[in-house]
Automatic annotation (TrEMBL):
The protein's name: UFM1-specific peptidase 1
UniProt superkingdom: Eukaryota
InterPro entries per the UniProt record, alphabetical: Papain-like_cys_pep_sf, UFSP1/2_DUB_cat
Gene3D superfamilies: 3.90.70.130
Family of the protein in this entry: Belongs to the peptidase C78 family.
Domain UFSP1/2/DUB catalytic: 55-248
Keywords per UniProt: Hydrolase
GO molecular function: deUFMylase activity
Native source organism of the sequence: Hucho hucho
Pfam families recorded: Peptidase_C78 (PF07910)
């Protein structure tokens, strides 16, 4: 399956030695800074409507990864990596049964994600150290590579009605699997973390709980993250009707 969200590769200085080697090694450099990230940034967010009849959210905890949160300036190309890191943080902190204490692999860094895709043969060697985007398909490969978690990739042919029909699939995912979902598309190619879905009665539409990784700046408190809309409810009908969308759903209940 081809990469659906591509960008032109461009060499950059990562400011650190790239991690090469076995997939469960070389994690020390990103084990400490994750403790400064905001946890469960969606908690306390008001319901998107007064007449919601069904609402399904992630279970457990995840971290808010965003542009530059580790000191790496990835503006314009790193949103898919950040959403992937948020999904990985959920696996580490909330996946049941939990791994032995101290054995949980922290979310992979951007260089580790790129090297994993090269090691699997999905990308050429030039991909490592580039500014090339990744999408839902690459996220599925990386989660399987580092955490042995398979993912279901759902293709939605368009926004609007087609995306509304996918709401029930998301309800089932959050109720059974409980993990964050990655969403990306073609015209709307901005990666989004989906933490929940709410549906109104009588075909009045659904809302997605979106964690937007495009924030760049110092750490924000939860009130600011929510108040500025970086974590917010988005009406499904407000998304691009002319864009297809792909959803990456980690299948955690199989383990």
């Amino acid at each position: 399956m081809a990469n659906l969200e591509e960008n032109v590769s461009e060499g950059i200085d990562w400011g650190e030695k790239a991690v090469v080697g076995e997939k469960h090694k070389g994690t020390e450099h990103n084990a400490d800074w994750t403790g400064t990230l905001l946890k469960n940034a969606h908690i306390g967010l008001p319901s998107p409507a007064h007449d919601v009849v069904k609402c399904s959210l992630i279970s457990g905890e995840c971290l808010y990864f965003h542009y530059g949160c580790d000191g790496q300036d990835d503006r314009g190309w790193g949103c898919g990596y950040r959403t992937l890191q948020t999904m990985a943080s959920w696996l580490c902190q909330s996946w049941a049964p939990p791994p032995p204490k101290g054995k949980c692999r922290p979310p992979p860094s951007l260089p580790e994600i790129q090297h994993a895709l090269v090691a699997m043969g999905d990308k050429l060697a030039l991909f490592a150290g580039s500014r090339e985007w990744i999408g839902t398909f690459e996220a599925a490969l990386v989660l399987d590579y580092y955490y042995d978690v398979p993912c279901k990739v759902v293709h939605v042919r368009g926004g609007g009605v087609e995306l509304e029909r996918a709401a029930e699939e998301l309800h089932q995912h959050f109720q059974i699997q409980g993990s964050p979902v990655m969403m990306g598309g073609d015209r709307d190619n901005s990666s989004k973390g989906i933490l929940g879905v709410c549906t109104r009665p009588g075909g009045q539409g659904s809302y997605l709980l979106v964690m937007d990784p495009h924030y760049y700046g110092p750490r924000l408190e939860m009130t600011s993250v929510q108040g500025l809309g970086w974590v917010s409810w988005k009406k499904v009908g407000s998304l691009d009707h002319s864009s297809f969308y792909n959803l990456c759903l980690p299948q955690t209940s199989r383990k």
